Amino acid sequence: MKIIHSDNAPAALGPYSQAYEANGFVFTAGELGIDPQTGKLPEGIAAQAEQACKNIEAILEASGLSMMNVIKTTCFLADMADFKVFNEIYGKHFVSKPARSCFAAKTLPGGGLCVIEAVAAR
Known about the structure:
This protein is of the alpha+beta class. It has 2 helices and 6 strands. It has a single domain (about 1-120), classed as CATH 3.30.1330.40.
């Protein structure tokens, strides 16, 4: 087992890792749409979803994998009214169509509008 870290994704906001690899699988933490350069969330669901996907991609690249290796995602939205826009952005990045669950969450850390976590297979 090993911890995965990328400087091209935001640092963890608490006592956890960006991702962990075990038995040929990489499990990412839930990624907000925080810009790793500024440490801030961009405005709007489209921009946050785009950045969250880029953060997942950066973490997977640090493990030697790509978005094509993702087999399962779990997504959280602060407002299900954002589902259509979120889905459009998500679909551009997760073209392999991994299994997915998507839930509304009452509030997300830092006032985020979406969070994505992924499981990828080696």
